[in-house]
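INFO batch 0412 | record 1 of 1 | parsing
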Amino acid sequence: MWIELNDNDVSGEPTACRVCGGPVRRCLDLGRQPVSNAFLLPEQIADEAFFRLEVGICTRCTLVQQLDVVAHERMFRPDYPYRSSTSARLRRHFADVARTLHTTELTGPDDLVVEVGSNDGIMLRTLSDAGVRHLGVDPCVGAGDTAAQGGVRIRIDYFNERSAAEIRRTDGPAKVIFSANTISHIADLGSVFGGVDALLTADGVFVFEDRYLADIIAHTTFDQIYDEHVYLLAVRSVSEVAAVFGFELIDAQRLGVHGGSMRYTVARAGARPRTARVDQLIGEERALGLGDPATFAGFGARLDVIGKDLVALLTELRSAGMRVAGYGATSKSATVTNYCGIGTDLVPVIYDTTPEKQGRLTPGAHIPVESAARFTDPYPDYALLFAWNHAEEIIEREREFRDRGGRWILYVPDVHLL
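INFO prediction complete | emitting tokens
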């Protein structure tokens, strides 16, 4: 029997913004969705859980948020399969992040950096090798074990006021608290900022990266919306959120990773000057209409066209006897396959490089996941690239596929072939 997440598993539709208390207006409905990283064994299908993926926008602070939120214990289980280090581009990116933090902020002989959601230690490994005092905080045992094996000091836990206070007692205050693609996953942002307040030095910084709402809207990357992304962040909304908890957004920097991200730098209110970039970006967001529910109506219309075009293409290829496979069993792929109704009749298999996902079934759609090493055995005629944010890296690695006449199918920003 299918399990519908009940009131004990979701927070329910908010009557007010979870942060500022302003009214939240529903603006997007992506339908019935599974837990995006719950890759299944066949015997687990009967107990699979689903929820309603709806998004609303606060008309006061403009924070875009899911109306129902899956309990974090369901999303971030001990066997959570995502590993940042499987991407060469991300390995380079986080090595650069580590070096930047080391040269700009972690300049003292005993400075401490704490990473929230450290995953497999991809960023902290560089700082560990440089002798910087560090600690990664992550609730997922598997990812934490991988990080520890690489020489990174790890605490298996959620980051909040309790854990932050305990870290301060044992390690002292942190000069830098860093996080990548994690803060938007945490429904209770008050618990995060409470932890930052308990742990950060008076002149320290809280630096975090996340997918950027403006890029999601501009490129119609609707698959960036799934259970883990409780919030879709923008510069104005982060500035408003920080102020609610006694902090200030002092800088924002656009990044190219994950199809468009933003790096936010937050400090205690009045502790550091605010760069001109923050107000410039907020002005750009106003011009783009990021705070206007009508903007999301247009976004919804575009994603509906993408979904219909993608299913039509896959159906046409199946009718023509072409073999189609998926590439990249990403969290994002759950939104695409379940919103569009793509199952094994259209995409019989998805190839992926992550061992923890191989031999399992994708959430909701139940498409088998096989090792990317089998992509060549034999090559399909077409490959639907779910991991489009790593397109350059993957297409280069699998260049023989195209050399032999294979075609890549992409759906961002629209359905097209490469």
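INFO post-check: The mean pLDDT is 93.
INFO record closed
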